[in-house]
Amino acid sequence: MLRKIRIALATVMFIGITMLFLDFTGTMHHYVAWMPKLQFLESVLALNVVVILALIVLTLIFGRIYCSIICPLGIMQDIFGWLGKKAKKNRYTSSKEMKWLRYPIMGIFIIALVAGIGTLVHLLAPYSAFGRIATNLLQPVWLAGNNALASIAEHYDSYAFYRSDIWLRSLPSLTIAVITLVVLAVLAWRNGRTYCNTICPVGTVLSFFSRFSWLKILFDTEKCRNCSLCTKNCKAACIDFKNHEVDYSRCVVCGDCIESCKFGALEYGRSIQKTQNNQNSPIDPSKRSFLLTSAIMATAAMAQEAKTTDGGLAEIEDKVAPERQTPLTPPGSLSAKNMAQHCTGCQLCISECPNEVLRPSSDWLHLMQPTMSYERGYCRPECTRCSEVCPAGAIKPIHHEDKSAIQIGHAVWIKKNCIPLTDGVSCGNCARHCPVGAIEMVPSDPDDEESLKIPVVNEARCIGCGACENLCPARPFSAIYVEGHEVHKEV
User: Fold this and answer.
1) What are all long-range contacts of 175-181, with beta carbons under 8 Å and residues at least 24 apart?
2) Closest by alpha carbon to 94, among 243, 253, 258?
């Protein structure tokens, strides 16, 4: 029963989070945007005290079920391990905790987090690793399938599906995602939970609490025949069948050992039972199942937030990105410093951006954090989807009516690229499409009111949305582009 409950809850969580990364229509985040907010590291960075305490209490009661039910990277490793088990059964062995590797990595992670070395944090954070895999590898496959269905639907004069562009957001991010997937697949296929119990900083933190969990995997020494099946099926390598011991700091309560035991020598219950020689009545498995399910659902309910709507899509021609002195960060991120301190590089905001404005940064210090560029679209004032899905507090929730007052940068006019001056024709695209009226067209010759008009930017009014840059017809470089601000402000 324990294993079935674990698989059912893990399936719901894994499908929900994966679909959140794959979905490009903006539908799924109305239903499952709360799931990323249950991730431990993201909750810590967002200072979500309720979720943090709920996860700690959950671990103190049930053990490290977070790693096998809530964490998508842990669930993905279970899938690889299950495939490996199909190839070769009973292949695991017991091993000692690798403290010499586990705790130094934890120390490096904490130092990187405090020092703002984002790249190291992103590489080690489990949810971020899964996010990169989903965004860079799974979403293009999903979009290709959608586009194939759209082609079929068009043939039958149906508009049930619509096409979406498949484009390379960042080659470094794609490369890291491929390497991460290969390494995790090999480790999980061969050795099960090696990553979780030696590298993952979240697993290391939760291991401190899981040692004292109320419910644990317990041996009944009278029933045990030392057949070693529990050890050979433990993907965490934490069961020593010879000494009838379980390393609870590494056990993720998957239930595989109980399932594999043919003599009923293992059970999931209170450790006090064994010290009292089973004088206490055993816990009803159905009650335990109810407790486990209720705890997970309660945690999910606490993370659920109000749902809002987003903006539309725009099909806009690609352009060449300008050289910005200061990178642009999304409205709601408050500042480049706040983004660097809180972002884990999960890239959920990038995969959710309907206007293709966000993409991973190429800055090696903040590699894989979202940055903005307007070659494919602009940041529409009515769209707040990135702020709705960010689980780490790097992009704070904002309302539609407030977004038009948040200044993330200002437009800069490049005289040598402007079409009225280079081609001698009227334009004014930037002024017509500015949503806040920050651009005014004035005569290029102050002494001739009939001369072709050129744009003048009111920097105090400009919010840096990028509509002018994106819709400027000058090629390959726009005649107007947006320069970012280190600190955002309201205008």
Assistant:
1) 176/123, 176/132, 176/367, 176/368, 177/132, 177/133, 177/135, 177/136, 177/137, 178/136, 178/137, 180/129, 180/132, 180/133, 181/133, 181/137
2) 243
Q: How far apart are CA 308 and CA 382, in angstroms?
A: 11
Instruction: Compute the chain's Rg from CA coordinates.
Output: 27
Tell me if 122 sits within 8 A of 369, measured CB to CB: yes
pLDDT tens string, the chain, 491 residues long: the values are 788 999 999 999 999 999 999 998 888 888 898 999 999 999 999 999 999 999 999 999 999 999 999 999 999 999 998 888 877 777 888 888 898 999 999 999 999 998 888 889 999 999 999 999 999 999 999 999 999 999 999 888 888 888 898 988 999 999 999 999 999 999 998 888 999 999 999 999 999 999 999 999 999 999 999 999 999 999 999 999 999 999 999 999 999 999 999 999 999 998 654 444 444 444 455 555 555 555 555 555 555 544 444 444 444 445 788 889 999 999 999 999 999 999 999 999 999 999 999 999 988 888 889 999 999 999 999 999 999 999 999 999 999 888 999 999 999 999 999 999 999 999 999 999 999 999 999 999 988 988 999 999 999 999 999 999 999 999 888 999 999 999 999 98
Tokens, residue 406: 């948040």
List of residues 6+ apart from 358 with CB closer than 8 A? 330, 349, 350, 370, 371, 372, 386
Q: Which residues, other chains included, contact 57 with Cβ-Cβ below 8 Å and sequence gap of 6+? A: none
Buried b (16+ CB within 10 A) or exposed e, 235-262: bbbbbbbeebebbbbbbbbbbbbbebbe
How many C-beta atoms lie closer than 10 Å to residue 101's C-beta?
A: 12
What is the pTM for the complete model shown?
A: 0.85
- Give the pair of three-digit tokens for residue 129: 């690793």
Three-class SS state of 153? helix
Write phi, then psi, for 189 (nearest 5 degrees). Answer: -65, -45
Cis peptide leading into 72, omega within 30 of 0? no
What is the separation of C-alpha 152 from the centre of its chain, rounded to a whole number of angstroms? 32
Could you tell me which of 386, 376, 379 has the C-alpha nearest to residue 408? Answer: 379
Interior angle at CA 72, CA 69 and CA 74, nearest 5? 70
For 221, the enclosing helix (H) or strand (E) is none
